[in-house]
Amino acid sequence: MRMHVTASGLKWFISTTTGAAIITSAGCGGGGSSAGQSAVKKGEAAAARVVITPASGTAGVRPDAPVVVRATGGRLADVVLDSGGRRISGEYNRDHTRWQSRWTLQPGSTVNVRASAENANGLVSTAQSSFATEKVTGNTFTASQDEVLESRRGDTYGVGLPIILNFDKPVHDRAAVERSLQVIAEKPVLGSWHWFDDKQVVYRAKSYWPAYQTVKLIAHLGGVKGGKDLYGGKDLVRTYRIGGSHISYLDIANHHMRVEHDGKVVRRVPISAGMGGSTEYTTTSGIHMNMEKDEDVTMTSPGRGPGDPGYYSELIHYAVRVSSAGEYLHQTPGDEGCLGVSNCSHGCIRQPAADAIWYYKQSQPGDPVDITGTDRQVEPDNGWSYYQMSWAKWLKGSALHHH
Q1: Which of 230, 165, 233 has the alpha carbon at shortest distance from 201?
Q2: Is 4 an active-site residue?
Q3: Catalytic one of 348, 401, 402, 403
């Protein structure tokens, strides 16, 4: 075997038995780190050239600046980008001569890029670049998961699960932030984000999630520019296990609830809802979601104190919350005479003791509860009632799909 070193510093080795060449290099030029070409045997194609931008040794790179890798005289075979300990994926063009990072870089971190390309004869060229991103101090924002979802981490969720993110500072570049949010489902379906204000964004499927799968959120927020001099401080990753399809259909006018598991009716329950007469005592119709549950909840009349007309304070058992306005499905307190006959509650859904215990045990956060029969509709942002909004209107709340 013999070794040849070109004037550019490129080393190549020619096997005395096969004539194949393996070419490696490291150097800078043209604004990026590159692997150059070398002299080759007659009849062989020149080695591919790989150029990485930013170049090795560059400091103060903006976290939202793309990393670009180009190949001439061949096709890119592999690109590995590591930013502050996290792998950043990217996308190739059609002929694999250009690669660009998909996500932003971690601020104040060292970024390492390794790339390789092959020419027509299979000769491999490689290049490396190591550079530093600028630090962001003071003007950073972070995301947190909805408090109810966070408290239920590790649970199995229903097919109506929403993904809710809250930001600690107002986000002005919603499109940049929304582009950084990746939802990966084992059984993918059409879905979209919707901004309710500049500090909250929610993801839901067009219809419900398919049952029995895992859904993962990767919020690639580190380095995302959320506004003038405002960058995301760190990523957020959450995983959700979707269980069976548990959907409850409540007919308030006929005082009846039907529960379906995976499309089959498994229980019919006599119920009693809000007595009406005022908005306060009218159960809301529309698509609700089970949110949280507690074996014991003390329910009191809103805005009233002891001695005020209409004041009540009751200890309720096996309560499953379906709205932020205080609506629950729960065990009836005391007399079951009105169940299946009339509406006598203050707005919640009462059930017989045995049925309430059963419903409590099998309920999952994100189980849909479809209520009909009253003249009061639940608001889409009342609890997790996001499916109450039409899909067309939901898309208008996206910074990327508002058309």
Answers
A1: 165
A2: no
A3: 348
